[in-house]
Amino acid sequence: MPMGHELLVLVQVHGQGGVRFQNWAKTYGSSPELYFQPTSVEEIREILDMARQRDKRVKVVGGGHSPSDIACTDDFMIQMGKMNRVLKVDKEKQQVTVEGGIFLSDLNIELSKHGLALANLGAVSEVAAAGVIGTGTHNTGIKHGILPTQVVALTLLTASGDILECSESINADIFQAARLHLGCLGVVLTVTFQCVPQFHLHEVAFPSTLTEVLDHLDDHLQRSQYFRFLWFPHSENVSVIYQDPTNKPPSSSASWWWDYAVGYYLLEFLLWISTFVPSLVCWINRFFFWLLFSSRVENIAISYKIFNYECRFKQHVQDWAIPIEKTKEALLELKAALENNPKMVAHYPVEVRFVRGDEIWLSPCFQRDSCYMNIIMYRPYGKNVPRLNYWLTYEGIMKKHGGRPHWAKAHSCTRKDFEKMYPAFPKFCSVREKLDPMGMFLNTYLEKVFY
Q1: Are 334 and 350 in contact (CB under 8 A)?
Q2: Parallel, antiparallel, or unpaired for β 116-117 and 196-197?
Q3: What are 118-127's pLDDT values in tens digits?
Q4: Which tens digits make up the pLDDT trace of 169-186?
Q5: Do the beta carbons of residue 129 and residue 102 sit within 8 Å?
């Protein structure tokens, strides 16, 4: 009998060797010893059993979009793409329960069939539900929290093989940890999202200046439900973007020629040239603002089509959240730092977004309304552009103003930093140690966080 049982295990869960995992931007990767794509909870349990027997670590991945090594491992990797069903739509409560591996791009379409939508989404939808909440994905809108605030329940498979139901009323402590879980508490099997009735958004983008936007920040925040702005470094130029629910029919003033032919191919070519002549970047930022952002543009479409936008080509990014009242000071310091260091170049845009505070233990917006400031350096044709000075200058300014880094994005923080940043950090650690005493779900990234 034992012999047959072992054979059964091998037949049921088949791990692939020789798979190379890379994140979307191809900036981080790893070579897991075995790569699994389970189709059931039983299979995942068996993978965890096998890992325990062989003393291996396990990393669960979704869309692989995180611009850091948070999803990397050399041991066992579980890719959740085959566990992607919609399990239940509760029209009365306007809630949907899904398997952790479903991509938001698929969920958006499913929800619209039921006349529902998520109230807020990040820029990218080729991401898995469990991963989106695990890293604290956000968008913008001072009335809206990070995406995990839309989660009302979830189920977690722990290292020991137990399934925990979590919500505000059941396992409430684990729930506040697991809504932003960093992939270190177990395998998120299902997620229940609070939805809203389906809606269309009217997007208006118009040119402004940094001085104007920072001096009238409160007005902008009140004027538009989903307000963000793009600042073009080495200039005063700003593109203000308002997005608001509307009943008007869909329409668009975007054009393929400008957005792709010019916005993508020409930009990539010019940024590549600028790797030889760095002083060109100032000119490129101004030229593209004039070309693509200096006139008013309007679009109306179903909500998720407006929330999602093109991330253009491969890139390095950093994204920290600071208390909202520090927005002006921090941005002006970054601008001054660039002006005082002519050799330090910054690609456009610096994207500035606003998010409501929450009670999720490891949320960058824990107990405070926040401003996220996202900086970027593109990799034209996959070529890295020197960014260390800019990165360190930015991190220094963010830390000075009480910033907390976006978990999915590369940062240089360690446990000491997080203990200062997060009042609930010890609570999260004790939940993690209770659920995963042997550290099965840790990796290099998480060791820096917890040790």
Answers
A1: yes
A2: antiparallel
A3: 999 988 888 9
A4: 999 999 999 999 999 999
A5: yes
Query: How far apart are the C-alpha atoms of 207 and 365, rounded to whole Å?
Result: 28
Q: How far is CA 358 from CA 132, 159, 400, in A?
A: 16, 28, 22
Of 2-11, 240-249, 340-349, 420-429, the least confident: 2-11
Average pLDDT on 375-403 reads: 94
The closest alpha carbon to 177, from 438, 443, 430, 383, belongs to 430
Q: DSSP label at 313?
A: S
The pair of structure tokens assigned to 191 is 């997620």
C-alpha triplet 417, 418, 422: angle, nearest 5°: 130
The CA distance from 188 to 82, in Å, is 14
- Identify the pLDDT of residue 27: 77
Secondary structure element (H or E) that encloses residue 172, with its range = helix 172-178
Strand order of the β-sheet with 226-231 is: 251-252, 297-302, 200-209, 237-246, 226-231, 350-355, 370-378, 315-323, 404-405
**What letter represents residue 79's amino acid?**
Q
CA distance 134 to 449: 14
Q: Please name the residues in contact with 204: beta carbons below 8 A apart, sequence gap of 6 or more.
A: 241, 242, 243, 296, 297, 298
The 10s digit of each residue's pLDDT in 234-245 is 999 999 999 999
Q: How many CA atoms lie within 13 A of 225 on its CB side?
A: 13
Express each pLDDT in 267-291 by its tens digit: 999 999 999 999 999 999 999 999 8
Residue written as token pair 């995992």: 21
